[in-house]
Specification:
This protein is α+β, with helices and mostly antiparallel strands. The protein folds into 3 domains: 218 residues, Beta-Lactamase; 106 residues, Signal transduction histidine kinase, dimerisation/phosphotransfer (DHp) domain (Helix Hairpins, Orthogonal Bundle), CATH 1.10.287; 149 residues, Heat Shock Protein 90. The protein has 11 helices and 12 strands. The strands form 3 sheets. It has a 5-stranded antiparallel beta sheet, with helices on both faces. It has a 5-stranded mixed beta sheet with strand order 7-9-10-12-11. Strands 6-8 form a two-stranded antiparallel ribbon. β3 and β4 form a beta hairpin. α2 runs antiparallel to α3, α8 packs across α10 and α10 runs antiparallel to α11.
């Protein structure tokens, strides 16, 4: 398992590794199969040639022995003695075979060879009286324990008195074995060289192919990281050059579009910032005039008094939107800073719940806070309070009489807060869209409370400014839950949450 894991990782992550591995595997299989076939054919050819050579040599020797045996004078010389003499003459030193002659009373066998070298089936075949030569493979055994492959040829000698004597010529295949050994060695040395050469050639070819691809990936990664001036070097006119040219054209077009969007975004941010600041002065004047009218509304007729109240309420809402726009412009300009203090997150939540108790009673939505112990965090209390206010306002705006539940918990590294409502909710795929500026899940939906449409966007920016998370879960008809995760201290990083994003009361 320890070996296969790195191999699997390299296989999945490297085209070069796959190409070299596949080529070497195919080469080794071809070499093994081809080498085995070649060795088998060569071995069969050598064995067949050895059999033909042995049959020819044995036939010549047997004829010479038969001629000399025919000239034997049976009146003055014993047949057995003559056979022994012929065996010494023909099977002596310098011959390529050993000789074994079987007689009814005794047997002649060349010095050093065992009788078991002649197969039993060949001994039986020779006893049938046939004058044909029998050739077969055998294992030549010696008295010193050696054993080598060989060929045995069986024939007959016929004495003048017509008595037959089985004769066996045993040819050891020592030279042939040496030839096969040399052939084996040469074949495997050549195969090893071929595998190494093909592996190096494949590696070089894969390198030539994958280097441009890797360069393209690196350039794409640098472009994705924001370095829009990166381009691929195009030196040839092949497919890789076409890839590089296409990628450079794409990068140029992408840079042009991004620059245009950046300019447009900058203009929009500057416009929002300028308009927001310029509206502060007339808004102050309008606020003062509205307050005067609102305080004197009791002296007006009912229709005019109602108009003054609507004017006062909408002026307050417009002022809230203006304040949110100014805050958004600070985030866009990178001018937002933190003023960190150690505060109890539970106290901040309770204070905001009390502040919005009137709104909750007005819409008939009870608010419950669940916290077992204080959760102290080092944060900007004003910004975290604004996050809580926006989340609670959103829950009251979209919730129902089932109520809103705020849960607070923490551990040594992080603090978590969830705000759960049971209202209309939103589709799961809209979990990130809810933090967009002025976004609504359904434009036709009538909300209970009004809002600027910037509350959740500002809450997300405040959470990010604290190096924390703000996430959303929703299900149509089942409500929504927002989870805020903050580091206990500014030097810590948020890498986990102690509360589930998906509520457990579904």
């Amino acid at each position: 398992m320890r070996i296969t894991a790195p191999v699997r990782s390299a296989w999945d992550s490297s085209i070069r590794f796959r190409l070299v591995a596949l080529t070497l595997t195919a080469t080794i299989l071809v070499v093994l199969l081809g080498g085995q076939l070649l060795l088998t054919r060569a071995g069969d050819g050598i064995v067949e040639a050895k059999k033909q050579f042995a049959a020819t040599e044995a036939s010549v020797a047997l004829q010479r022995m038969q001629t000399q045996l025919n000239d034997t004078d049976m009146r003055t010389e014993s047949v057995l003695e003559r056979l022994g003499q012929l065996a010494d003459e023909v099977g002596g030193q310098g011959t390529q075979y050993s000789l074994f002659i079987e007689t009814p009373t005794s047997s002649y066998i060349s010095r050093g060879m065992l009788r078991e070298s002649v197969p039993l089936e060949l001994l039986k075949a020779s006893d049938d009286g046939s004058t044909a030569l029998f050739v077969t493979a055998t294992q030549v055994l010696y008295v010193d324990g050696r054993s080598v492959p060989g060929v045995v040829v069986a024939g007959h000698l016929v004495a003048p008195n017509q008595q037959e004597f089985p004769t066996y010529f045993v040819f050891p295949a020592t030279s042939e074995i040496q030839t096969l050994t040399v052939l084996h060695r040469a074949l495997w040395v050549t195969a090893s060289f071929l595998v190494v050469a093909l592996g190096m050639a494949t590696f070089w070819i894969a390198h030539q192919v994958t280097v441009p691809v890797r360069q393209a990936a690196e350039v794409a990664a640098r472009i994705a990281s924001g370095d829009l001036d990166q381009r691929m070097a195009v030196r040839r006119h092949d497919e890789m050059a076409s890839l590089g040219s296409s990628m450079n054209n794409m990068a140029g077009e992408l840079e042009r579009q991004i620059r245009a969007l950046e300019n447009l975004s900058a203009v929009q941010r500057q416009f929002v910032s300028d308009v927001s600041h310029e509206l502060r002065t007339p808004m102050t004047t309008m606020r003062m005039a509205t307050e005067v009218l609102h305080e004197a509304r009791e002296d007006f007729d009912p229709h005019l008094a109602r108009s003054v109240e609507l004017l006062h309420d909408q002026e307050e809402r417009f002022e809230e939107m203006l304040a949110d726009l100014l805050e958004i412009s600070r985030f866009d300009a990178g001018a937002a800073v933190l003023s960190v203090d150690a505060v109890d997150l539970v106290d901040l939540v309770n204070a905001e719940v009390v502040a919005q108790q009137g709104v909750a009673e007005k819409v008939g939505i009870p608010v419950e806070v669940r916290a077992t112990e204080p959760v102290v965090v080092e944060v900007d209390a004003r910004r975290v309070t604004r996050i809580i206010r926006n989340l609670l306002s959103n829950a009251l705006s979209h919730g129902d009489e089932s109520g809103v539940t705020i849960t607070i918990a923490g551990d040594a590294q992080v603090a978590c807060l969830t705000v759960r409502d049971h209202g209309v909710g939103f589709a799961p795929e809209a979990a990130e869209l809810v933090f967009r500026r002025f976004w609504r899940a359904d434009e036709s939906r009538q909300r209970v409370l009004g809002g600027t449409g910037l509350g959740l966007a500002i809450a997300l920016e405040d959470a990010r400014l604290h190096k924390g998370w703000l996430e959303a879960w929703g299900q149509e008809g089942e409500g929504a839950q927002f989870r805020l995760t903050l580091p206990r201290k500014g030097c810590m990083m948020v890498d986990h949450a102690v509360l589930d994003l998906e509520p457990g009361d579904r």
